């Protein structure tokens, strides 16, 4: 009704303005971010005009007695108004009826991130402000200083991110109950990859390189080569575990870092397998040599000895012979000398690692 106090107030309301002076985003997880915001709203209420040329500052307790906009943060999961030592609100009334209303709030706002390119990702998050009850016919929202309305992002120091770009926009929210004014602040976060390079990429590259050291060690030094192989595999496993704990709840995504660690793990595992193959071939060749030597010896031996030796050897080597055959078909056939396996590996492992790296980095950084 026209006499209703609230509608009277609405008629007198000319404009509301919003700007942020200080924005301190101190926590960003992969589903939300938490920010402490100084939200300042300004509007004109002509009933509050008074004589004089000085503004009047009121305490937060007097807010109850004035009309204030019913702004809320869309997508906020949890937010609170600071109240130490008193409620962090401020009201300033100017002689011409302009009211400045500032509050300090900490809000956790949903911002779902696409982590497929983690840690080479860029995320766009928004902070949306809407009027809860007054629709677009009642109030209008706009940013006081356009794209410069939000301040403090330039000096923001975040552990993992840099704020790349930010801008503001004005729109409308359409619901069943009507259309409501809406202000949106967009900001783009770029993850600082340097930390990941130092923490994960460099160690895993070094591990892969370490696993190649094995190709330069003589095939006869079994402990040395096995030691390098197993140690690098285990260290790589630890590294993969460590990378997973940095984003504990996001392990269902296959991230770029997981792909890289997977590649490194395959190379390291491949190096270990290479030794197994090469060693098997060598062993097998020497067995063959021993075998022929023994056979020639047997010819000189007495028949009783010969029988004994023969049964011993055939019992021992027949499964080996089958495996040898299978194996020789695939590998020894091409690699005349098993020592050549190492020579091939020395070239093919680094070369394929470099090629895969080129594809990986080009894909994740430019596509
Ligand atoms: C406004 O302030 C000035 C001094 O700053 C004073 O001279 C003037 O009289 C004041 N005007 C009113 C309307 O009070
Ligand atoms: C009212 O006064 C304040 C402070 O002097 C000024 O910033 C504001 O623009 C004025 N508002 C109107 C509607 O004149
Ligand atoms: C604010 O920035 C956005 C994106 O850079 C641009 O599209 C828009 O026109 C800018 N608005 C104003 C008022 O400058």
TrEMBL record:
Keyword Transmembrane on entry: yes
Keyword Cell cycle among record annotations: no
Residue ranges constituting the Neurotransmitter-gated ion-channel transmembrane domain according to the UniProt record: 200-300
Reaction catalysed by this enzyme: chloride(in) = chloride(out)
Any one GO MF annotation of this record: GABA-gated chloride ion channel activity
Chief location category: membrane
Domain Neurotransmitter-gated ion-channel ligand-binding: 31-192
Keywords: Cell membrane, Chloride, Chloride channel, Disulfide bond, Glycoprotein, Ion channel, Ion transport, Membrane, Signal, Synapse, Transmembrane, Transmembrane helix, Transport
Topology term for the membrane: Multi-pass membrane protein
Subcellular location: Apical cell membrane; Synaptic cell membrane
Region (Disordered) location: 298-317
Transmembrane segments: 193-217, 223-247, 259-278, 347-366
GO annotations of cellular component type: apical plasma membrane; chloride channel complex; synaptic membrane
Subunit structure: Heteropentamer, formed by a combination of alpha (GABRA1-6), beta (GABRB1-3), gamma (GABRG1-3), delta (GABRD), epsilon (GABRE), rho (GABRR1-3), pi (GABRP) and theta (GABRQ) chains, each subunit exhibiting distinct physiological and pharmacological properties.
Family statement drawn from the similarity comment of this UniProt entry: Belongs to the ligand-gated ion channel (TC 1.A.9) family. Gamma-aminobutyric acid receptor (TC 1.A.9.5) subfamily. GABRP sub-subfamily.
Function recorded in the entry: Pi subunit of the heteropentameric ligand-gated chloride channel gated by gamma-aminobutyric acid (GABA). GABA-gated chloride channels, also named GABA(A) receptors (GABAAR), consist of five subunits arranged around a central pore and contain GABA active binding site(s) located at the alpha and beta subunit interfaces. When activated by GABA, GABAARs selectively allow the flow of chloride anions across the cell membrane down their electrochemical gradient. Pi-containing GABAARs are mostly located in peripheral tissues.
Protein name: Gamma-aminobutyric acid receptor subunit pi
Species: Terrapene triunguis (Three-toed box turtle)
Organism taxonomic ancestry: Eukaryota, Metazoa, Chordata, Craniata, Vertebrata
């Amino acid at each position: 009704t026209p006499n209703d106090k609230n509608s009277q107030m609405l008629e007198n309301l000319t404009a509301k303005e919003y700007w942020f002076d200080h924005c301190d985003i101190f926590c960003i997880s992969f589903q939300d971010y938490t920010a402490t915001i100084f939200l300042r709203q300004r509007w004109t209420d002509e009933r509050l005009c008074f004589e004089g040329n000085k503004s009047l500052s009121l305490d937060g307790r007097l807010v109850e007695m004035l009309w204030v906009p019913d702004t809320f943060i869309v997508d906020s999961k949890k937010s609170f108004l600071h109240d130490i030592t008193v409620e962090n609100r401020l009201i300033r009334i100017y002689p011409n009826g302009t009211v400045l209303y500032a509050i300090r709030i900490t809000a956790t706002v949903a911002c779902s991130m696409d982590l497929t390119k983690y840690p080479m990702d860029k995320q766009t998050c928004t902070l949306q402000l809407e009027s809860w009850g007054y629709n677009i016919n009642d109030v209008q929202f706009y940013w006081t200083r356009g794209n410069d309305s939000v301040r403090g992002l330039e000096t923001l120091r975040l552990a993992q991110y840099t704020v790349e770009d930010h801008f503001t926009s004005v729109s409308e929210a359409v619901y069943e109950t009507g259309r409501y004014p809406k202000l949106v602040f967009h900001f783009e976060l770029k993850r600082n990859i340097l930390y990941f390079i130092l923490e994960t990429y460099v160690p895993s590259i070094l591990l892969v390189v370490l696993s190649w050291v094995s190709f330069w060690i003589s095939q006869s030094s079994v402990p040395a080569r096995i030691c390098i192989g197993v140690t690098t595999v285990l260290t790589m496993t630890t590294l993969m575990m460590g990378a997973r704990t940095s984003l504990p709840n996001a392990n269902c995504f296959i991230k770029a870092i997981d792909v890289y660690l997977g590649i490194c793990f395959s190379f390291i595992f491949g190096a270990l397998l290479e030794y197994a193959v090469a060693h098997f071939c060598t062993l097998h060749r020497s067995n063959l040599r021993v075998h022929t030597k023994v056979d020639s010896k047997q010819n000189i031996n007495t028949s009783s000895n010969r029988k004994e030796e023969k049964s011993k050897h055939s019992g021992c080597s027949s499964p080996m012979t089958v495996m040898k055959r299978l194996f020789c078909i695939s590998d020894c056939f091409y690699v005349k000398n098993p020592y050549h396996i190492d020579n091939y590996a020395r070239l093919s492992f680094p070369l394929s690692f470099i090629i895969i790296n080129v594809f990986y980095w080009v894909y994740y950084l430019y596509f």
